[in-house]
Amino acid sequence: MSNPDVPAALATIPPMASAAGIHKRFGSTHALRGVGLNLYHGRCLGLVGRNGAGKSTLVSILSGITAPDEGEVRFDGQPAPSLGDIAAWRGRIATVFQHSMVVADLTVAENVFLGRQPRRRGVPRSFGVVDWRQMREQARKIMTDWGFDVSADAPCASLTVEQRQVVEITRALAAGTRCLLLDEPTAALERGAVLRLFERIRQLREAGVAIMYISHHLEEVFEICTDVAVLRDGELVLTAPITQVTKDGLVTAMVGEKKKDHSPERPVVSAPAPQLATAESRGQPGAADLVVSSVTVAATGVHLSGVSLTVRGGERVGLTGLRGSGATTLARIVAGAAAADAGEVRFGDRVLAAGDRAAALRAGIGYIPEDRQADGFVPLLGAAENIAMTITDRIARAGFVSPKRREERATPLARRLSLVSAGLGQPVRELSGGNQQKVTVARALASDPALIVAITPTRGVDVASKELLLAELDRVTRQTGASLLLASDELDDLAICDRVLVLVRGEIFTEFTEPPFDREALIAATEGLGEK
Amino acid sequence: MSEPESRGAARMENPSELKGRGAAWTEERSDEGRRRRRASRRRAENTAPWRRAAIRAREGGRGPGGERASRAVSWLREAALLPVLAVLIVVGALLNSHFLTVSNITGIGQQISALGVVVVGESLILLIGGMDLSLEATYGLAPMVAAWLLVPVAAFGDGLLLNPFLGIGILLAVGVAVGFVNGLLIVKGRLNGFIVTLGMTILLAGIQDGIVKGQSPFNLPSAFSYLGAANIGAVPVSLIVAALIFIAAGLFLRYHRAGRAIYAIGGNREAARAAGIKVDRVRIGVYVTGSVLAAIGGLMEAGRVSSVTSSQGYGEGIIFAVFAAAVIGGVSLQGGRGNMVGAASGVVLLGVVQNILDLENAPNYWIDAIDGAVILLALILARVIGGEASAE
Question: B342, B64 in Cβ contact below 8 A?
Fold first, then answer.
C-alpha cells in the first residue's frame, strides 16, 4: 500500500494485519473478489460499503471465523493461525461485533478472561483451577490503565450497551491483542456514548493499536479514522488516507455511479412539497386520528410519565430522543407491541387493547419494529410469506392461503422497494441486512395501514436503500393519506415528517413544527437543552 | 427452546428407573396381558438408545444450513430418508423371504400407525418451538379412562358400561383437557414446557394406574376397537386413518393460515407477534391438537391389542420413539423447521427396523445396541444426504 500519509518509518514495518487476494464464494454469490488491505500500528482504517458489499464476510475472515477460498491473512508478516486455533487468533486480532458477545450471567472480570482465566499457582495448570483474585486484579488493572470505568465485579447483565463494549475491548487488550475490528460499534449507542467511544478509539490508536472501523455513518469515519477503504460488490474500489477523500467521493465509490445531490448528510428524500408543508393542512377530514392520552410506563429504561399526543389523519409525526427517553416505547405502545401501565390509545373511534398487536393491526396500524432480527421477520420463511404475514386473513380462502396469491400480493411491494432476492421464496435469513429491512417494511405496508408506526426504519441500512425506504414511506403516506408515527434518532429519517416531538426522560420536551428541521437544534433538544 | 445441555442431561438420567417401575407394578392377569407386557417391557428397554439418539440429534440437529437452498434442493432434503428406507427394504428382503409379503407389510402398517399419529402431534408441537413429553401418557390415559367406563367389572371396568361412541367422545375430551392444561401452563403461565409436561406425564400415568389399580381392562366393544383392529380388504383401518392424518396435517401446514402461523411462531415468535399473529392462541391450539392426536393414537393401540394395559404409553416409554421418528424425519427441535413427509418417513423407518429385528430374532440382549446403532446411522445418513451440518 503506497500511502503518502503513512510515515516512512512505518512503511518499512510489516502491517499488523494484512489480507491479500481474498476470494470468498457462497454458492453462486461471489462475496469477495480479490480483496487486499492492511492494518497498521496506530492507524484506524474505516471500512465502508453498502449492505451486501462483503463487509461482514471480510470481518469474519479477518477474525478467523470463516476461511477464505483464496488468498491469505497475515499478522506481523507471519501467516495466520489455522482456523480452529481460536486462542491464537484472539491473541492477534479481536472483533467487537454489533451484537454483544459478553456472557450476561458472568461478571466483568470473568468475561474479560473468558476461556483464558489465570490459573492458581501451586496447582498444576492442567487442573484448570481458576485464580479468582488474580483475575479480578488483572481485569481491574487493565481497566485503570486505559481509564475505563467499569467495575470488574459487576455482573454483565447490569451493564449498558456501552459498558459491554468496553468489556469486549478490555477482553481483547487483556489477550494481548493490538489489532481491533469494530463492527458498527455505534449502532446501539446514544450520542454521549459515541463520543466517549471515539475518545477511547483515539487513545488506543495513540498507544499503537491497529483498528478497523466498520460503519454506515460516513461522518463517523471522517471523525475517527485515519484511512478509509470502500468495498463494493466484493471488490475494494478505494483505499486512501481520509484527508484525501470527500464524502461525495466516498458515496460515489460505494454506489458506483455519480449520484447528483446524494450527499449522505442529505439523502434525496424529496423535501415536503410546499402545499403539504404544515401539519394543519395535512389533517384530512374523515381519516382516523390517533389520540394518545396520559400514557404512563413505570419500568426503568422505558419509562414514560403521562404522555399525550394527537396525530391527525394523514399527518406524519416524528418522535425522537436519546435512548431511554421513551420515544421508542411510545411508538411500541401505539403499535400494540408493548403495554402501558396506564393511559389510553385511541385510533379513530376505537380504544386499542393494551399490548395487543393483533388488535392494532385490525384497527389499521402497520408496524415496522426497531430490531428486525428480533421481531422483523421469520428467518426460515420466504420473503413473500414474511411480507404477506400481516394479511393472511385477507388472502385466505376458507383459511387456506395459496402460495400463488401470497406472491401476487408480495410482488408489487418487493418491486417498489427494489428487494433483491433469488425469488420471493428465498428464506429471508439468506438476504443481506438491507434487504431484510425491506422485507420488514414491506410486511408493514402490505396491510394498507391507515397509520404506520415505524421505529428506526433505516438503522443498519446502506445509503441507497435508506433513501429508497424513506422515499417509499413518504410516497405511501402521501398517496394513501395514511398517517405516520416515526420514532428515530436520525435526522434523515425525521426529514419526511411534518413535525417532530422530542422526548426527554419520559416526557415530551419540545416540538418542531417547521420542516426542514435544524440538526443542531434537534440534537440540543434531545439532550434537554434549548427552549421548551 | 434454548435450554441446551442441562435438559438433555436430565432426560438421560431418569428414564430407565422410572420406566422399570411402571412395568414391574403391573400384575399378570391373563395370557394376553402377559404376552403384551413382555412385549412392552422389551420395548421399554429398547427406548433408552432412542432417547439418546434424540438428544444427540438435537445438539447438532438443526436442518441443513445451505445459503442457497433452491426449492429443488429443499424438496430433496425433505425426501432425504427415502434412499435409506430403500436400502433397508432391500436388506430386509434379502435377509428374510417373509419380509415383502402382504401380511408382513400390513403388519408393519398396523404397528406404526398408532405411533405415527402421535408423531404428527409431537411434530406440530416441535414446529412451534415447544415440546410435549406427556403425549405418551395421554396415549395411555385417554383410552384407559374410556375403556374403564365401557367394560364390565369382570373385565376390570367400573361397570358403567357406557356407549362405545360416548367412550370415544370421552377419549377425545381427555386429549383436549390435557392439551389445554399443558398449553395454559406453558403459554399463559410461562412455565417451562419440558418440566410441565414431564410432571404431567407422571401425573397422568399415575391416574392411568390408579383408576384400574394396575389392571388391564379388556373385552373392548367392537366399535371402540374398530379403529385399531379392523381391516378393509387387506389394509388395516388404522393405517388408512394414520395416512389420512399425515396428509391432512401436511396440507394444513403447507396451505392453511394457522399452519403457516405455526412455522412463523416456531421460526421467530416475536416476529410472528409483531405481524399480528395471535401467537398464544395458536400455541395453545397446537398443544390441544397434539394431545388429541395422542389420544387417537392410544385408541388405535388399544384396538390393536384389544385391551388397555396400565403400561400403555408411559410404561412402554413410547415418547422416545416419537421424538426419534420426528427428529430422524428432519423436524427441528428448535422449532420452525420440518414437515410431514419427513416425519412420516421417520416413522416408517423405525417400523421397518423394528420389523427386521423381530423377523431375524435378533438376540434379546443385543437388541438395544442394534436399535440404537441403526437410529444413529439413520441420523447420520439423513444428515449426509440432506446437506452439510449447520454451524449454528
Answer: no
